[in-house]
Write a structure and sequence with these properties.
Length: about 170
């Protein structure tokens, strides 16, 4: 093949390739409608409040009755018997006196009821509705199309139009 034929063939292929390339350009379409698209999202939150609860308290036992009863019982027990019996009687008298003295001193304990504040917290659902896009319906050269977009385009929509021949 000679150089003229090679050059001609190269130019012919380059010309055909340029005809088969796509053409891109910007244009505008008329917006027919825009509908916001929503989603429900749960963002739980903590809710706290103060609750009042009844608390019962009992007066504390005192040791005064036990001490006085033990001393009096010990003195009375020491008056009985003699020798080792006297020591045993003193010990029994002190123990008995302590028990009797404690019961007498603490028999009238008062139980009081009061209310105390208690903080209570719990997690509650917090459902919110958010816009996650817009369903835009537009018309371009007599054809109606729809697309979901992240924003509301207004009355007109800028389009990128791409034309390419169909090769068979």
């Amino acid at each position: 093949m000679n150089s003229f034929a090679k050059t001609s063939l190269t130019l012919l292929c380059a010309g055909a390739a340029s005809l088969a390339q796509a053409v891109d350009f910007d244009d505008t379409a008329r917006v027919v409608s825009v509908a916001p698209q929503y989603e429900r999202v749960n963002q739980p939150r903590q809710e706290c409040y103060t609750e009042y609860v009844n608390v019962q308290t009992q007066q504390r036992n005192s040791l005064g009755g036990s001490i006085v009863g033990g001393v009096v019982g010990g003195l009375l027990g020491s008056q009985i018997g003699g020798g080792n019996g006297k020591t045993a009687a003193t010990a029994v008298g002190a123990i008995t006196g302590a028990i009797v003295g404690d019961r007498m001193d603490n028999q009238g304990n008062v139980v009081t009821t009061s209310q105390q504040p208690v903080n209570q917290c719990r997690i509650v659902d917090n459902w919110q509705q958010r816009t996650n896009g817009y369903l835009v319906t537009y018309e371009y050269r007599g054809i109606t199309q729809s697309a979901v977009m992240p924003y509301d385009p207004g009355q007109n929509l800028r389009l990128r139009v791409s034309l390419a021949p169909v090769l068979r």
